[in-house]
Fold these 2 entries.
Entry 1:
Amino acid sequence: MKFFLDTANVDEIRQAASMGILDGVTTNPTLVSREEGKFKDNLVQICEIVNGPVSAEVVSTEAEGMLSEARDLAGLHSNIYVKIPMIREGLKAVKTLSSEGIRTNVTLCFSASQALMAAKAGATLISPFVGRVDDISGVGMDIIQDIRTIYDNYGFETEILAASLRHPLHVVEAALIGADIATMPYKVFDQLFNHPLTDIGLERFLADWDKVKDRVS
Ligand code: G3P
């Protein structure tokens, strides 16, 4: 499973990248709006930190506008994947971009039927939002499972990027289902390391070692 960070914050990306297990980054207009500086400059900086896909989203709602934004974004750096919303005009744009070799990430996906349409249009990645479905009393993870089954049934190459993950168990559940990628906020990435028994165990090992340290050699 690939791990992406869902943020536009360069410091968080640097920190996660220093662990050596960061595979990519996803941004969206909301995440970008929280950061200072110029969007494209920040994007290029992120691409230089991360050796993998960096998703940047278009804001046009007509295919023509999406295409021109997408070509511009894709020209900024070879790591850029263009995020396109899961609407009819979006899928028209995805079809064209896929024929031009521009990689896409279809976002705002909330159902297996939408994921099926995106795969048929040639999306490189599909981003089903788990947490936002949970927020309205649905079971977001069921959609990831349904998409996995459908893509496997037909051999679609579109990769499933589990998005809107809010806690470590979301990541584990997505991994059990076989989602190709999990994108998560830095907080969740960091929480994945934690277990109180690891901390207690390490403390005990070090204390016991301290008792015998004079006899080590
Ligand atoms: O980037 C898309 C997605 O991960 C957003 O998550 O927490 O705003 O629902 P959230």
Entry 2:
Amino acid sequence: MNPIDRQKQAAGAAAALEIRDGMTVGLGTGSTAAHFVAALALRAQAEGLDLRCVSTSKATAEQANGLGLTVVPLDDVEWIDITVDGADEIGPGLSLIKGGGAALLREKLVWESSRRCIVIADAAKVVATLGAFPLPVEVVAFGHTATARRIRDAALRLGLVMEPRLRMRDGFPVQTDSGQLIYDLACGALPDPSALAGALKSITGVIDHGLFLGLADEALVGGINGVARLAR
Ligand code: 5RP
């Protein structure tokens, strides 16, 4: 395991210690979240914890089911006690860019149903200003190139110059778990993430974006000296 992966694993293991018997737990998506799911499954088995989990992606649901965790649909729960998920960037006030794994929509739906959200990451994810990581935006497949032009123009009005890039894999557009498309916006530094978030949400073909603002309650960040806890 490389040093970055060890930091992710340490953050995931620390987050697993936050879970109590009887909780409903939101499971994130990505390599850091996968470490949390693995650590949680070990704890649940060793301590006989009675947990219900809600997954943010098909991939995580598969992992969790395979490890013996009980996964239920979001529609079956009123509230989630705690959600633990990764991030692509952690900025000031625990503002986040998420969606590198194309799961941003389900992630945001789960986060918004959660009483407490913990973001877990390796230290390299903590930044002074969001935006070096291209912002993922989930877009309706119908008319997506027209939507991409509207995204470009809306960003330009905020002084952000970029051409939205359709995310591809093996020569085909990446499809999200909900069957939609992802555009990545390489805007560079985002001095006003909430202005961009508002502008993107007002475009009809945009389903959601990877800016998670005011959602994370705390962060557990793995580093060379162990795991640091950051508060909002
Ligand atoms: C998936 C996400 C992930 O949490 C994010 O991409 C971080 O991934 P990783 O833990 O693999 O670095 O938002 O949509």
